[in-house]
Amino acid sequence: MTMTTRTRIARLRTIGLTGLATTGAAAAALTLMPTTAQAAEATQAHISTAVTASSSNSQKSGYANNLDGWIKQSLRIMKSKGIPGSYDGLKRNIMRESGGNPSAQNNWDVNAQKGTPSKGLLQVIDPTFNAYHVSGTAKSVTDPVANITAAANYAAHRYGSIDNVNSAY
Q1: Contacts within 8 Å (CB) and 24+ apart, 51-54
Q2: pTM passes above 0.70
Q3: What is the spatial distance between Cα 88 and Cα 112, in angstroms, rounded to a whole number?
Q4: Which of 76, 89, 97 is nearest to 164 (CA)?
Q5: How many whole angstroms separate alpha carbon 15 and alpha carbon 20?
């Protein structure tokens, strides 16, 4: 890792920890954290705001409107559509990609520079979401259940399962 990259990560981590509740930059900072432990540390700072994000289907489905409920609801849909994946695989990737924040958006990487920032729990770009959207979920990349399910569908086609993804995909 170059010194510039380390400096950027440190600076963004500081921004993320100090402004999580009020800035969009904080969501991007979460996706830059190099380890799950650091992402989990930052998640504790904003967990109360992350778990209250709305999922249009969660109230009707009987699942909790939080990360655990979104994952479980997505797994039910995935199973019905034959999309492989496990709770642990989904949660591991979510924590690495967004720290559990359904409003996370990456505004700095190559996708963002091309006008398509990564969004949501599993940091999906709009074209990928549209191509791998799963019927029965909201048509919104920022809807937690739709984001998880579309990302798992993409990972199944590309890697065999979200469980096989251990880095940015």
Answers
A1: 51/100, 53/102, 53/103, 53/144
A2: no
A3: 28
A4: 89
A5: 8
